[in-house]
Amino acid sequence: MTAPRPATLKHLRESGWRSKSVKHELRDNYLKALQRGEPLFPGIVGYDDTVIPEISIAVLAAHDMLFLGEKGQAKSRLMRALVRFLDEYVPYLDIPGSAVHEDPFAPITRAAKELVANTPEEQVRIAWWHHKERYAERLAPGTKFADVIGEIDPAKLAMGTSMSAEDALHFGLIPRMHRAIFAMNEIPELDELIQVGLFNILEERDVQIRGYPIPFDLDVLILFSANPATFNRSGKVIPQLKDRIGSIIQTHYPRERALGIEIMEQEAKPDAASGVYVPYFMKEIIEQISVSARKSKYVDQSSGVSARFSIANYRTMVASARHRGVRLNESPAVPRISDLGHLPTSSLGKLELDLMGSHQMAERQVLEAIIADAIRIVFEEYVDKHGLEEISDVFSKGVKIEVGDMLPSAEYAKRLKRVPKAWEKAFEVNAGDTDAVRASCAEFVLAGLYASDRISRATRHGRMTYET
């Protein structure tokens, strides 16, 4: 509205405003966004042909939704993004002390109905609810029935209010989200008693407290999230609740590494003026570490490997390069393979090991194996294998090259002069005129040769020595 928003029920009625259910409101605004061709979920990468069409169908079908996927697949972000399809503001009855944002033309509580019925419309005050406030979520573990549905208020009972009366009820989150969106994360961890309590809300849209039905006509869109391993486990989510969920939206990890890199860069938000230049092959290695972890037999795949794993590792790598740039007065600082030696600080604890396997590897050993596999995969995609044997022969003659995260970039050029002909046949990706970029390329080649079992490597005090 361009004019001032109505402040009384009389003015609201004269304005022509009409009541809509929250799902109707969501659907109408979603259709307008589709017709305009605007991005539906800005910042969500890799779901245009898979997840977003399924959400569109569910919204148009007026369904409650379950977002089913492993950790780090943007389930919560998708749920929170739905509020942008609500009207910017909706009116509600301005009743002091009320916990419910009542539709002025369709009140649901006794107090609101009496107010509208017994008060002249010009005296009934109207307030306005912004769409960003019309969303609430709760994490299932530790949630109690009173938190999300409600409880009988003992103080009101002591004053003589009947347990079956509406006035005796203290509202939980879901009744307070009348005309809004409520999300429950990790629904398999929700207590069975609360799952039962959700039956009526999902189907009949009323509230039952301790066996007393409170006949509210609740208007709420309910969203859930879950991990497939726990959601599909027998007994974790009772069948009657599953049956009442309208649509299941299946999320997934990026189908292509380039999409994973796009997500990683978007979420890490690197500062372009930070004095760090990241060669693309280093970005590929960081994302490939996550890809390899998702395929590793040592990692519990039912738990998944979050996109936050890549984001945290990327930030660690950039921070290590920035640290070196400041200490050695190199600008721009360029990440190297030796910077990956700091990844345990951002990785350990984010990988769930497969404890059912026969391996006896610690988490750090598993991480080292995954990093080596990622370097090998990216290296083999870049390298022209012709000439690698000659490089290996040079190392077999006793050549040793030492590198490290605090070794000045200019030192690399000096050390690589010892194998000039072999180096000419190697490749340099993102080759540039700066010593720092060339140092990063040099470490990539050396680490790739090591990961391909062509040379050996010894690590000591942050320095790596490559030899046969």
Explain what the structure shows.
- 42% of the residues lie in helices and 13% in strands.
- It is of the alpha/beta class and 468 residues long.
- It folds into two domains: 9-250, P-loop containing nucleotide triphosphate hydrolases (Rossmann fold); 257-467, no CATH class.
- A five-stranded parallel β-sheet has the order 4-7-10-1-11.
DSSP summary: helix tally:
20
Beta-strand content estimate: 5-15%
Q: Could you say which structural class the secondary elements and strand pairing correspond to?
A: alpha/beta
- State Rg: 30 Å
The averaged pLDDT comes out at: 86
The share of residues in helices is 40-55%
How many extended strands? Answer: 14
Please identify the top-level CATH class of the largest domain: Alpha Beta
**Given the C-alpha coordinates, what overall shape results?**
elongated
Please identify which CATH superfamily of the largest domain we are dealing with: P-loop containing nucleotide triphosphate hydrolases
In what order do the strands lie side by side in the largest sheet?
4-7-10-1-11
Low-confidence stretches: none
Task: List the domain count as a whole number.
Answer: 2
In whole angstroms, the N-to-C terminal distance is: 75 Å
Described by its quaternary structure, the protein is: single chain
The appropriate CATH architecture of the largest domain is 3-Layer(aba) Sandwich
Largest sheet: 5 strands, parallel
Here the CATH topology of the largest domain equals Rossmann fold
